[in-house]
Design goal:
Distance between the termini: 29 Å
Oligomer: single chain
Structural class: mainly alpha
Shape: globular
Strand order of the largest sheet: 1-2
Helix content: 55-70%
Number of strands: 4
Strand content: under 5%
Low-confidence stretches: none
Length: about 170
């Protein structure tokens, strides 16, 4: 797909016209509407980040060489902190930018941030580091429920027709 011209700077302007590159998500998710794409990417981001964080923390737990905790001043920084910061950034970006491309990236970042928080939900509920204890199973159960419910909603709403407003009609 060739880039398209989005604006004409006008005669006498020194800079060339700006072109808009096609979104990489169009190739990855063909046939998925721009409004729905952010939700699909949030679901993927959540599922993959949750699995990746469980693997990473297990590698840290079994002392694999070269893999360790993130610390600042000798204090362990739990990954839910990064999730909160990422969700705050997505929220701020959502107030300012609403293009289809931005919604896709914000959807992915939202899913990643939410997974970082949900993965440590048991710690946030009990206010103790129970990640590897039996109580830590709350986080796993919650994450599996989020993945299942969100995936089911995405699957059940896939065939719905776009409204006139979604198609740009009045």
């Amino acid at each position: 797909m060739k880039p398209t011209r989005t604006s004409d700077p006008g005669p006498g302007s020194a800079r060339p016209p700006r072109t808009e590159r096609p979104s990489p998500w169009l190739r990855l998710l063909p046939g998925i509407s721009p409004k729905r794409r952010g939700f699909v990417l949030a679901w993927w981001g959540f599922a993959l980040t949750f699995g990746g964080m469980r693997l990473l923390t297990w590698l840290i737990h079994i002392d694999v060489a070269g893999v360790g905790d993130v610390q600042a001043g000798g204090l362990h920084i739990h990954h839910y902190v990064w999730g909160i910061l990422l969700l705050a950034a997505v929220g701020a970006a959502g107030l300012a930018e609403r293009s289809a491309r931005a919604r896709a990236w914000m959807g992915l970042a939202f899913g990643v941030g939410l997974a970082l928080i949900v993965d440590e939900a048991a710690l946030l509920i009990s206010l103790e580091d129970v990640y590897w204890d039996t109580e830590g199973g709350i986080s796993i159960a919650l994450a599996i429920a989020v993945i299942a419910v969100a995936g089911s909603v995405l699957a059940m709403t896939r065939g719905r027709r776009a409204s006139r407003a979604d198609r740009g009609e009045k």
